[in-house]
Design brief:
Blueprint (H helix, E strand, L loop, with lengths): L1 H27 L5 H13 L13 H4 L3 E4 L2 E6 L7 H5 L16 E3 L13 H4 L5 E3 L6 E3 L12 E3 L4 E3 L14 E3 L6 E2 L13 E3 L4 E5 L12 E3 L4 E4 L13 E3 L4 E4 L4 H4 L6 E3 L4 E4 L13 E3 L4 E5 L13 E3 L4 E4 L10 E3 L4 E4 L9 E2 L4 E2 L8 H10 L16 H9 L1 H33 L1 E2 L5 E2 L22 E2 L2 H7 L8 E4 L4 E7 L3 E9 L5 H13 L8 E5 L5 E7 L6 H4 L1 E3 L7 E3 L2 H21 L4 E2 L8 E3 L5 E3 L6 E2 L6 H4 L21 H17 L10 H10 L8 H4 L11 H17 L10 H9 L1 H5 L18 H5 L8 H5 L2 H5 L51
Parallel strand pairs: 2-3, 3-4, 4-6, 5-7, 6-8, 8-10, 9-11, 10-12, 11-13, 12-14, 13-15, 14-16, 15-17, 16-18, 17-19, 18-20, 19-21, 20-22, 21-23, 22-24, 23-25, 28-32
Antiparallel strand pairs: 1-2, 26-27, 29-30, 30-31, 31-33, 32-33, 34-35, 36-39, 37-38
Helix pairs in contact: 13-15, 13-19, 15-18
Length: 879
């Protein structure tokens, strides 16, 4: 029996091995189709692929990177992450004619591989077996060909982060097998095709960050299989269709930053029991918040900030789900008292509303309440503002939290009789709060003095904020993803024993040395004194690199942690150093000569830095805050492509207890952040503020602005910001770097960048734009200062928030305060922008070259109304 049993097991094992062998053999069978081999060689040539990836003499099915075969035929090509030859890099094109002869091709993935050009029409006529088309971040331009609607086998289309234009072809509604359609972050226009109602197998639809307009087609409510729907950052208008209540499987819904209006349909919250993330911020919704919102079973995030919602919050805030939800109700018109908030929240933002009365002590945890009408809280609205709001609604406002109709005489008598106990309780509670705050301040001050450590250069190393500690013992760092482990001897040899001649600079987390490894590889070695720098500093950076990878980050090549008192991190060397060193460079023509970076390069650097920060803020989960954004942190390779450095201070954004789940759905920065005071804060808004100063350095040529927050910098900002106005292009010429040689067309781009910079420097962190909108503005600078459509309807007020650019500058208001603040003598004289180091073609200091003012018809006040008074630019927002 035993022999028979083992024979059966052996037989089964042999059968499994045979099946596995046949499967592998089918995949590794040599390419036996001459036409397809010729097609691959054609692709190799037209795309400039390297010989080491696609060796000519080797079999493509077994030796070519990214080529997948089945039964000796090509079924998949993956170019993602591959490099080009030098010639190929010089002239990249969307030249993929060889694909037309791969008749069984089921998958084509070129994400991240530059293919500047348009998608050819023959894609929809020849690639009849295609199931997956992935062209994310490929620099694709022009309209989407309608012929793609012929590829009925397609189940996934990824075309995000490109330059696609024109309308979405209705023919895509013919792709009945389509499961994923991602057209986000392009420049698509017109309306969403109603033909999409036929895509009954669709699970993900992402059309965000385009220029789509018109109402949302009610027919989208028929997509009962849809789980992820993102239509944010467009110009969509009208109501949310009531038919959306039929999206029974929907988990994520994002309609933020549009011009949607009307009341929120109750069916959106009663019928969609699977909803976990709902983002409806920055629209024109009005009316009350449906009561059913507070009892949604799966809800983790609700963001309705930046609307016109009103009413008293219901006396219920419990949630059946164990996960504590996050609510953002800020920037609306809610009113009443906070006594009804007895439920449990991960956090709730009630700022910028009209709540009144006394703040209950148990409400202060995880609740943002700034800019309301509350008595025992700081940073509130004025009494006049609050009184007029309540008076307009026929409600009484007496500063005591009574949100009722005016009382009768009998009620007044009874209230007066009970006034003494009430006042006693109020003042007793206030005294207790003051005492607790004083005790807490003393404790924090003592802990701060105990934890503060000085490095060898005398600068303070501050304790890491919440969320920035190294990974817990249960989550060890994956050192295999951190490059090579170098020996101490290797690094000594590379840096000539860390000779002072190789010292680049003293960084706040370690000294940086230039070095050359064996084989001639140039590197930068950071030497960390473990006795003066906390372990969390370099461990945090190692943990960051083990979890995060992007082309906008400086490459970490390896590390050396074998020394007890010294630790070393090895980075790729950046030939053009950093922005602080490259903005003005010594020339070879004369010893003392300096060459200024041209405007095209400066704009490229700004876009690259914004792209890197946008990745950290919006594509990492939870969002990552850089915390050291300045010119010296923006490293530049040989082509002036940006690589973000100085990553020893990175940490996850503080203030969210469930960021790892909800962060990519939160579109607004936290209300806390680095104010103009320069305090180090772990919020995305603090990065935005610092980035605004970097942009001003690029515009003005004033070095050191982003690296300092002292009184001189604050004074310089106060003098400079008034020259940045939406209505007078000529004003910006007073602050533009005089070494720049720009014509009138480029001046509009300079003007646009200055406007973006000023918006980033808003004194209120909650009003600063988020990085994805900043990136969009820098990529489309002329859209910042020109109307999108000269034949458009009259511009509406700032509350319309129609698109990404409206969301970017939602805090700007139409005024001329900045112009009024400029000395009249300067305003009256119309200066001329210097070109080629001269004063202008007419040789005078007035008039020549540019018109004094810029016509309002060429500006969109709706997109960029004027900002809050610049005179408050140095006043930090109180939390």
């Amino acid at each position: 029996m035993a022999d028979r049993r083992w024979s059966t097991v052996e037989l089964l094992a042999r059968v499994i091995l045979i099946l596995l062998f046949q499967t592998v053999l089918g995949q590794l069978e040599p390419l036996n189709n001459r036409t397809e081999r010729a097609a691959l060689l054609d692709l190799r040539s037209s795309l400039g692929l390297r010989a080491k990836d696609w060796p000519r003499k080797a079999d493509p099915c077994s030796a070519w990177t990214g080529v997948q075969c089945r039964d000796g035929r090509v079924v998949g090509i993956n170019l993602s992450g591959m490099g080009r030859t030098r010639v190929g890099r010089l002239n990249p094109q969307f030249s993929v004619d060889g694909l037309a002869n791969l008749t069984l091709l089921a998958s084509f993935n070129a994400s991240g591989f530059s293919l500047p050009g348009s998608i050819p029409d023959w894609f929809g006529e020849r690639l009849h077996s295609l199931q997956v088309l992935d062209l994310r971040s490929c620099s694709v331009i022009d309209p989407i060909p309608s012929s793609l609607g012929n590829l009925t086998t397609l189940n996934s289309i990824y075309l995000s982060k490109n330059g696609l234009t024109s309308k979405i072809p209705p023919s895509l509604g013919q792709l009945l097998n389509l499961s994923v359609l991602d057209l986000s972050q392009n420049s698509l226009t017109e309306s969403i095709p109603s033909s999409f109602s036929a895509l009954t197998n669709l699970t993900l639809l992402d059309l965000s960050s385009n220029f789509l307009s018109g109402p949302i087609p009610p027919a989208l409510g028929n997509l009962s299989t849809l789980r992820f729907l993102n239509l944010s950052s467009n110009s969509l208008s009208a109501d949310v269709p009531a038919q959306f209540g039929g999206l029974s499987r929907l988990v994520d819904l994002d309609l933020s930053s549009n011009s949607l209006s009307g009341s929120l349909p109750n069916t959106l919250f009663t019928g969609l029991t699977q909803l976990q993330f709902v983002v409806l911020s920055h629209n024109n919704f009005s009316g009350t918040l449906p009561v059913s919102v507070w009892s949604m079973p799966q809800l983790r995030l609700l963001d309705v900030s930046g609307n016109n919602l009103t009413g008293i919050l219901p006396n219920r805030s419990s949630n059946a789900n164990d996960t504590l939800p996050v609510f953002n109700l800020s920037d609306n018109q809610f009113y009443g008292t906070l006594t009804s908030l007895v439920g449990r929240f991960g956090s709730i933002d009630l700022s910028d509303n009209y709540f009144q009365g006394i703040v209950p002590i148990n409400t202060l945890s995880n609740v943002s309440i700034a800019y309301n009408c509350l008595q025992n809280a700081s940073n509130q609205r004025s009494l006049e503002d609050c009184s007029s709001f309540y008076a307009a609604r026929g409600l009484s406002f007496d500063g005591a939290g009574n949100t009722t109709q005016p009382p009768s005489s009998a009620e007044t008598h009874n209230n007066n009789g009970n006034l003494a106990p009430i006042l006693g309780g109020v003042f007793g509670g206030l005294g207790l709060i003051v005492l607790l705050v004083l005790v807490l301040a003393l404790i924090l001050r003592r802990r701060g003095s105990e934890n503060g450590v000085s490095d060898q250069r005398g600068s303070d190393v501050r304790p890491a904020p919440a969320g920035s500690s190294p990974p817990p013992p249960g989550e060890p760092i994956n050192f295999s993803s951190l490059g090579d482990a170098y020996t101490y001897e290797q690094l000594l040899g590379a840096t000539s024993d860390f000779n002072d001649s190789n010292l680049i600079k003293h960084g706040h987390s370690g000294d940086l040395f230039r070095g050359v490894l064996e084989g001639g590889i140039p590197v930068v070695v950071k030497r960390i004194d473990a006795s003066s720098v906390k372990k969390e500093s370099y461990m945090r950076e190692l943990d960051f690199f083990s979890r995060v990878s992007d082309t906008r980050l400086v490459p970490l090549l390896g590390h050396c942690l074998e020394q007890e008192n010294e630790k070393f991190l090895v980075y790729k060397y950046m030939p053009n150093k950093d922005l602080a060193n490259s903005l003005y460079r010594k020339t070879d023509l004369q010893d003392d000569g300096l060459q200024s970076l041209d405007w095209i390069t400066r704009l490229k650097i700004a876009i690259g830095a914004a792209d890197g920060l946008s990745y950290l803020h919006h594509e990492c989960c939870p969002p990552i805050v850089h915390r050291d954004v300045q010119a010296s942190s923006i490293l530049l390779d040989d082509k002036f492509e940006v690589r973000l450095g100085s990553l020893s201070e990175v940490c996850t954004q503080e203030g969210d207890t469930h960021q790892n789940v909800i962060t990519r759905f939160l579109r607004l920065p936290q209300t806390s952040g680095q104010g103009p005071s320069g305090s180090l804060s772990a919020t995305c808004a603090s990065d935005v503020y610092s980035f605004g100063k970097v942009l001003l350095e690029l515009v003005t040529g004033k070095l050191g602005i982003s690296a300092s927050d002292d009184a001189s910098v604050k004074g310089w900002l106060e003098q400079t910001l008034p020259y940045i106005s939406m209505y007078e292009k000529e004003l910006v010429t007073k602050i533009v770097d005089p070494s720049l040689m720009i014509d009138e067309d480029l001046l509009e781009e300079v003007w646009a960048m200055a406007i973006v910079a000023r918006s980033c420097l808003n004194p209120k962190p909650s009003k600063r734009p988020i990085m994805r909108y900043i990136l969009k503005a820098l990529e489309n600078p002329l859209k910042v200062v020109r109307e999108e459509n000269s034949n458009s309807a009259p511009l509406r007020t700032t509350s319309s928030r129609r698109s990404w650019n409206a969301a970017l500058f939602g805090s700007w208001r139409q005024s001329s305060l900045d112009t009024a603040a400029i000395p009249s003598a300067i305003r009256e004289g119309s200066g001329v922008l210097k070109q080629s180091g001269t004063t202008g073609s007419n040789g005078s200091g007035q008039g020549g070259g540019f018109e004094h003012s810029f016509s309002h018809k060429r500006l969109s006040k709706e997109i960029f109304p004027e900002p809050d008074d610049f005179r408050d630019i140095e006043r930090p927002e109180e939390d």
